[in-house]
Specification:
With 199 residues, the chain is of the alpha+beta class. The chain has a single domain, classed as Sandwich (Jelly Rolls). It is built from four helices and twelve strands; from the N terminus they run αβαβαββαββββββββ. A seven-stranded antiparallel beta sheet has the order 1-10-7-12-5-4-2. The chain has a five-stranded antiparallel beta sheet with strand order 3-6-11-8-9. The structure holds N-oxalylglycine (OGA) and manganese (II) ion. Residues 108, 116, 121, 134, 149, 165, 180, 182, 191, 193 line the site of N-oxalylglycine.
Length: 199
Amino acid sequence: MTLETALGDLNSQSYFVWDDFLSPDEVASISLDYQKLYDEGAFSRAGTGNQSGERNLSGGIRSDETYWLDPLALTLSQHVFWDRLEALKTRINEELFLGLWNLDGHYSRYPVDGFYHRHLDRFASSDQRTLSMVLYFNPDWHTGDGGELRIHGQGNPATQTDIAPIAGRLICFLSASVLHEVLLTHQVRLSFAGWWKRR
Ligand code: OGA
Ligand code: MN
C-alpha cells in the first residue's frame, strides 16, 4: 500500500484499508501492552450511543470493553503505533487539507459474541471527529471467526464491504459519513479505535 493509493481510495470510496501497517513484531509488542492493561483491570465497559452522546441509528448497542490511551503518558509499545499514525496524519493533511489536529482513541476488546451495531462515529453534539481509524491485533483470525468491520455503501445502501480484523491491518474512514458496524464475533477481538479531530 502506498500513501497515494490510500488517499485515492479515501477520495473515491471514503475509506482505505492498509494491510501490514504494523509488522508482526510490532503487533506482538502492542499485544503484551494490551494484555497487561487488561489483566490489571484497566478496561471498562463502553457506554452505549445514548450515554456517550454518540449519534446512533439503530439502538447504539455495543459490547466491547475499552481502555482510553493517555497521549501524554504513552508506553513504549503505544508509541510505536501512535507515532506512526501521527506521521500519517501529517501526510494526509499535506495532501487533502482535512485539518486533522489531535488524535484520541482506545483499545477495544470484544468478547465472544460481541458486536457493535450500525453507527456513525461523529457525535451529534460535536463535529470535531473527522477521520476514524481502527488497527487490529488478532494474529490468528480465520474465515468463519466473524467480527468483520462492515462498511455500508454511501448513496447505495445495498452495497457493503466486510473487512476481517486481521493483525497489522489499518482502516481509515470519514467519521461524518461512513456508516459501519462490527459483525458478531466468534472469537475475542482486539483492536485500537481512534479519531483524528479538527480544531
Ligand atoms: C468503533 C468502531 C470498528 C472496529 O469503535 O467506533 O466502529 O472494527 N470500531 O472495531
Ligand atoms: Mn465506529
